[in-house]
């Protein structure tokens, strides 16, 4: 670390080790040592880099290469530990020159459009080119690795973090390979073209806080939301990687981008664990309060007979408890939960990591009267709730098993049916009048799911007398037998990547034939 800190992360004087090329006369990649011409090109970029970094952008008045500081966030922004203390240190000289060249061409295009077109049109085109440019930045940093399995460059955000890597790959933005400029803008263009052809009528997109929604009361019949997963991803801080460039490109035209960094104050994430100095107030209770406010607002805009789906995926029960408590407090009754495979099994985040194989879609309805007011006078009896819980789990678990849903996914997929019993009431009380908290109830849910799983594993045998170690072993083997996401996803991903661009394909090789798979940390 000390050596790297003195070299500001090492991107400026990194050593060119190899060149990857293609030949028209043969298939596949060609790997060779750098030639004198290759080394001379890299040296020429190094000679010019200081003048470029000192240059001031004529439009924004800022340094043309972002020089804002990178905050240290353990587990997310580890690069400051190795000297990458500003955004401009994340790019090698040649990468910096390429990005600045493309940046200036986009500025020229926007200015030319402004001469003969309405300002709104020029700004719209600038936004689209800005998005393509940020995609280019993602493939043009000193944190881009080389994927041996697919024989191509990986983008910066193989996972939602900026970790230090020791050997990086430079793309050629003027080629037609992965990471090229043509791919950067065509990827977005294809989405636009597909939408224009397939949509019968246009939709509307509005920027608003989830706690102050612009829709009127009871105006929606269906609501779908994919909220932040507790402390899983610090979205706003990560977005600064892109924002610092957009600030220079669009800040003079769009007020939202004329700021030193992306807005973070109201971001609904548990951030105290990531950075207690900058976010001391954003603990689990803060997340719970903010999420409850957002869910109350969602219930306000949904009709009393409407239906909502909340997507969530978190490996820790603390994250689930915070979300579920917020939903119950906001006046929702949960009626179902479905695990749906939404993530690539080969994405870097899924490799050797304690994450769910699927996202759990919680189905819920407003706990409201016909006039839209919350039903707040219904009290559940704790004994009746406890008696109904195992029956509901017994009905649900076999159905999940038939679909191949086991392990952590099955446990969290039981939340909907289990929580319907609890959340249909404004509160649940013991005979003494003591109110049962959601945490107490969830402990009963986890126990009921475990018991039902064991009874399924041992069929007609009595598993009640198993000691803790034996119960753990049985559950572990049950998870092992369920396999992973199924299919040869690594091979599918490699085939899909032949078009020159993909999002998060990491890891290599095809799955081995036969055997079992077990998600990392599933036993715990």
Determine the mean pLDDT.
85
**Secondary-structure element order, as H and E?**
HEEHHHEEHEHHEHEEEHHHEHHH
Q: Could you tell me the number of beta strands?
A: 10
Question: What fraction of residues sit in β-strands?
Answer: 5-15%
Q: Rg, please?
A: 27 Å
What's the shape?
globular
Helix content: 40-55%
How are the strands of the largest sheet arranged? 5-6-8-7
The N- and C-terminal alpha carbons lie at a distance of: 33 Å
Uncertain segments are: 346-355, 483-513
Let me know the largest β-sheet.
4 strands, mixed
SS element count, helices: 14
**Structural class estimated from helices and strands:** alpha/beta
Descriptive notes:
This protein is of the alpha/beta class and 524 residues long. 40% of the residues lie in helices and 10% in strands. It contains 14 helices and ten strands. A four-stranded mixed β-sheet has the order 5-6-8-7. Strands 1-2 form a two-stranded antiparallel ribbon. A hairpin with a 4-residue loop joins strand 3 and strand 4. The longest helix has 24 residues, at 93-116. It starts with a helix and ends in a 28-residue tail after the last helix.
Features:
524 residues, alpha/beta, four-stranded mixed sheet, 14 helices, 10 strands
Summarize this, please?
By secondary structure, the chain is an alpha/beta fold.
Please give the structural blueprint.
Blueprint (H helix, E strand, L loop, with lengths): L1 H5 L12 E3 L8 E3 L3 H19 L38 H24 L2 H20 L7 E2 L4 E2 L27 H18 L21 E6 L9 H16 L33 H18 E11 L4 H13 L2 E9 L18 E8 L12 E3 H21 L4 H7 L1 H9 L3 E3 L8 H20 L10 H14 L7 H8 L28
Parallel strand pairs: 5-6, 9-10
Antiparallel strand pairs: 1-2, 3-4, 6-8, 7-8
Helix pairs in contact: 2-3, 3-4, 4-5, 4-6, 7-8, 9-11, 9-12, 12-13
């Amino acid at each position: 670390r000390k050596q790297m800190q003195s070299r500001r992360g090492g991107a400026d004087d990194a050593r060119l080790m190899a060149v990857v090329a293609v030949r028209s006369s043969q298939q596949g990649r060609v790997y060779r040592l750098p030639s004198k011409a290759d080394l001379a090109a890299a040296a020429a970029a190094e000679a010019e880099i200081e003048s470029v970094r000192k240059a001031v952008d004529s439009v924004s008045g800022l340094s043309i290469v972002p020089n804002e500081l990178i905050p240290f966030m353990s587990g997310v922004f580890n690069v400051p530990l190795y000297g990458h203390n500003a955004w401009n240190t994340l790019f090698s000289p040649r990468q910096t020159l390429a990005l600045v060249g493309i940046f200036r061409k986009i500025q020229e295009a926007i200015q030319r459009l402004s001469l003969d077109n309405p300002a709104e049109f020029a700004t719209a085109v600038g936004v689209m080119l800005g998005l393509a440019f940020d995609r280019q930045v993602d493939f043009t940093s000193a944190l881009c690795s080389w994927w041996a399995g697919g024989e191509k460059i990986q983008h910066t955000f193989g996972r939602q973090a900026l970790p230090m890597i020791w050997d990086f790959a430079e793309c050629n933005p003027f080629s037609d390979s992965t990471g090229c400029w043509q791919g950067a803008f065509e990827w977005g263009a294809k989405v636009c073209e597909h939408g224009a052809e397939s949509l019968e009528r246009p939709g509307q997109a509005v920027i608003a806080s989830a706690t102050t929604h612009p829709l009127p009361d009871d105006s929606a019949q269906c609501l779908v939301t994919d909220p932040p997963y507790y402390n899983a991803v610090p979205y706003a801080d990560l977005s600064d990687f892109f924002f610092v460039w957009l600030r220079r490109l669009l800040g003079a035209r769009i007020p939202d981008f004329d700021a030193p960094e992306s807005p973070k104050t109201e971001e609904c994430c548990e951030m105290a664990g990531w950075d207690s100095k900058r976010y001391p107030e954003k603990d689990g209770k803060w997340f719970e309060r903010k999420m409850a406010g957002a869910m109350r607002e969602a219930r306000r805009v949904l009709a009393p007979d409407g239906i909502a789906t909340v997507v969530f995926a978190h490996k820790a029960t603390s994250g689930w408890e915070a979300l579920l408590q917020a939903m119950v407090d906001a006046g929702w009754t949960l009626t179902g939960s479905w695990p749906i495979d939404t993530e690539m099994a080969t994405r870097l985040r899924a490799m050797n990591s304690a994450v769910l194989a699927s996202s759990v879609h919680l189905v819920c309805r407003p706990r409201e009267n016909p006039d839209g007011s919350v039903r707040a006078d219904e009290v559940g009896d704790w004994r009746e709730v406890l008696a109904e819980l195992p029956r509901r789990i017994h009905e649900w678990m076999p159905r999940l098993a038939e679909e191949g849903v086991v392990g952590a996914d099955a446990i969290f997929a039981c939340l909907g049916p289990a929580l319907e019993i609890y959340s249909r009431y404004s509160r649940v009380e013991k005979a003494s009048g003591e109110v049962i908290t959601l945490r107490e109830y969830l402990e009963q849910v986890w126990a009921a799911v475990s018991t039902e799983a064991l009874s399924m594993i041992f069929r007609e045998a009595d598993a009640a007398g198993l000691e803790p170690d034996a119960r753990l072993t049985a559950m572990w083997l049950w998870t092992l037998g369920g396999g992973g996401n199924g299919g040869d996803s690594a091979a599918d991903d490699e085939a899909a990547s032949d078009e020159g661009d993909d999002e998060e394909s990491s890891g290599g090789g095809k799955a081995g034939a036969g055997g079992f798979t077990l998600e990392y940390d599933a036993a715990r």
